[in-house]
């Protein structure tokens, strides 16, 4: 269905949709001004980015859809709910046609391989727990695609992420969205102030149910498409098979030891283990054992009781600070150390360079190097401000 006002049905549908102002000029913009303001929408082929494109088009902006082809291998391209490959590119193209907006597919496969997939494999083999979605956002999408959008004369790049941004106190700020279950701030913590000034996220005040209702009213072909659950290039969550394909010599055997160095068994590669793992260890001593640490240099998997997973002090590197003036004194914050967790109270100290120390009020289990730790304002409500975050390099 083309978005226009040529029929009473379309007028009714459009009136049900929220009007958005992307604030591309000081004080907002009227419809006449918007028609001269070009906006690029990153369209993954999912329902979120599709509705984001519809909102931008409906608001009157000169809208262009861009889909990135990021990989083209294996069963991953055949799965519904993956993004940026196979069926999803076709879905994005169909949505763009229904919205009557130009649509382009850009081949970023080599870049994605270098920046995200290779990093994923190397991080895993180093005994750390990678988060490729963060790497994809901070490199491929919010760096290279953002540059492409500017080259096309766009004044903003729109995505379907659930996050809120606003311009306050002389800078762009990031906050959690209305639908906290869809909050994607954990994956966006490394977004810089400069990038935030060009990015727009029109779904911040909508719930997932509202998104699907709007998609159905617009007769978008992806209205009922399931959400992505796994890492896009990892079919069925089978990390090991992907890493073995990327690094054929990675399955080097090693020892499974307890916390005192006693050998309990053998393993066939550290890629099969993550911190906090309990099942599939292949050893038993009469009580539950968990992976406490992985030493990639010695190829040892260290296991212990559940209480040995507890960590109170976390050291971070490559910290991205979004909280305004950089503070020298410790401050109270809330933090998330995994995407599915809830923010917990902690004390944050920004150290020299890009490092920081986080002291948790209550110890957390399963903290692993390679994960992210994201900071939020301590006293704020559901729309808490995102103060930044960093990569975990060690925990005590």
TrEMBL record:
One of its GO terms (biological process) is tRNA wobble position uridine thiolation. Belongs to the MnmA/TRMU family. Catalyzes the 2-thiolation of uridine at the wobble position (U34) of tRNA, leading to the formation of s(2)U34. Its main location: cytoplasm. It comes from Candidatus Micropelagius thuwalensis. The record marks 161, 371 as: Interaction with tRNA. ATP binds at residues 42-49, 68, 160. GO terms for molecular function: ATP binding; tRNA binding; tRNA-uridine 2-sulfurtransferase activity. Residues 182-184 are annotated as: Interaction with tRNA. Signal peptide: none annotated. It is found in: Cytoplasm. Pfam families: tRNA_Me_trans, tRNA_Me_trans_C, tRNA_Me_trans_M. It catalyses: S-sulfanyl-L-cysteinyl-[protein] + uridine(34) in tRNA + AH2 + ATP = 2-thiouridine(34) in tRNA + L-cysteinyl-[protein] + A + AMP + diphosphate + H(+). One of its GO terms (cellular component) is cytoplasm. Its EC number is 2.8.1.13. The active site is at 136 (nucleophile), 232 (cysteine persulfide intermediate). This is tRNA-specific 2-thiouridylase MnmA. CDD domains: MnmA_TRMU-like. Keywords: ATP-binding, Cytoplasm, Disulfide bond, Nucleotide-binding, RNA-binding, Transferase, tRNA processing, tRNA-binding. HAMAP family: tRNA_thiouridyl_MnmA. Residues 312-392 form the tRNA-specific 2-thiouridylase MnmA-like C-terminal domain. It comes from the Bacteria. SUPFAM superfamilies: Adenine nucleotide alpha hydrolases-like. Residues 253-304 form the tRNA-specific 2-thiouridylase MnmA-like central domain.
